[in-house]
Amino acid sequence: MMRRIEGGTLLMGSEEFYPEEGPVVEVAVAAFEIDETAVSNAEFARFVAETGYVTVAERPLDPAEFDIPEPAGRAAGSLVFTPTRGPVDLGDWRQWWRWVPGAQWRHPRGPGSTIEGMGDHPVVQIAFDDAVAYAAWAGKRLPTEPEWEWAARGGLVGARFAWGDDPQEPDALRANTWQGRFPYLNTGANGWIGTAPVRSFPPNGYGLFEMTGNTWEWTDTTWSTHESADGSGHCGCGPDATSGDRVLKGGSHLCSPDYCLRYRPAARSRQSVDSAATHIGFRCARSVRGAM
Predict the structure, then answer these.
(1) How far is residue 288's CA from residue 5's CA, in Å, rounded to a whole number?
(2) pLDDT category, 231, cuts 50, 70, 90?
(3) CA-CA distance, 202 to 268, in Å (whole number)?
(4) How sure is the predictor about 62, in pLDDT bands with cuts at 50, 70 and 90?
(5) What is the pLDDT of residue 241?
(6) Where are the domains of the chain?
(7) pLDDT of 63 over the 80 cut
(8) Which residues form the Sulfatase-modifying factor enzyme-like domain (predicted)?
(9) Mean pLDDT value of segment 49-63
(10) What's the whole-model pTM score?
(11) Confidence category of residue 227, pLDDT binned at 50, 70, 90
């Protein structure tokens, strides 16, 4: 199901948290439609069944193009989050990310994992081309970064979070995020460790679910910085990105205030278009005819 979002002037970005989010700029957004939820495993499975599509993570890679040791580099696979045994240097993402041959959307943590019984969870291990292909099949497209942020704010102007300025409402979690000490202790958000089913957490003011937390979501916007201290805009959630990268929005179930406070509408991360991981999914948008 999609929701129509009326257009307006977005105060895009934030100057409170990470340098790549600033400065705040005014952006005109035309009316559009956007999915109420991220695309689920069941929905993506229907797409694959009808088209025979093979995702990027299922295709063998050229190890010369990736920082992956042989022989794993030649095998199809993807990045899998693996909790550490205790505290580690939070500046080194390799402490908790592993390249796992055979990891893909049907087996998000590797060959021994499954999505059986998880049809209503957001699909993950999705690269940019996978999201674009699904959207085209569905007669939709990916949202732009301004559209995504406008929708995520749910009508709130300048609020830190999709529900207001407080990290959470008293005695109520509003998003599926890391609970505990990252990356080794997670007590679960409302019982969920990893992804939660779509519609598990309260919707925002526009009736959209899990716009922040649960999974990072692809946008169709090519990465560019506002004004960043180091020009990278990279949150350390995975490998360094390259030119032609796209903007991810929304944060994920791995976001933790002590490491990655990015479950906010203004938060953004730079992602290589050929990378998939256990915390990256997407939702679709559609233009409104005649919208100004």
Answers:
(1) 9
(2) very low
(3) 22
(4) low
(5) 44
(6) 1-292
(7) no
(8) 4-286
(9) 90
(10) 0.91
(11) very low
Tell me the pLDDT of the chain averaged across its residues: 90
1-292 in CATH: which number? 3.90.1580.10
> Are the beta carbons of 210 and 122 closer than 8 angstroms?
yes
What residue has token string 């990027």?
56
Phi, psi of 205, deg, nearest 5? -65, -15
Chain centroid offset of residue 269 CA: 9
The amino acid occupying position 109 is: R
Specify the pairing of strand 280-281 against strand 216-222: parallel
Q: Facing residues of 284 across strands?
A: none
Which residues fall within 8 angstroms of residue 145, CB to CB, at 6 or more apart?
12, 219, 221, 247, 249, 268
Strand partners, 9: 28
Q: Measured between alpha carbons, how far is 105 from 76 in angstroms, rounded to an integer?
A: 12
End-to-end CA distance of the chain: 23
For the residues of the chain, what is the DSSP string, one character each? Answer: -EEEE--EEEEE--SSS-GGG-S-EEEEE--EEEESSPPBHHHHHHHHHHH----GGGS---GGGSS--TTGGGS-EEEEE---SS---TT-GGGTEEEEET-BTTBTT-TT---TT-TTSBP-S--HHHHHHHHHHTT-BPPPHHHHHHHHHTT-SS-SBTTBSSSSBTTB--S----EETTTEE--BTTBSS---TT-S---TTS---SSSSSEEEEEEEP--SS-SSS----SSSSPP-TT-EEEES--TT--TTT----STT-EEEE-TT--BTTEE---EEEPTT--
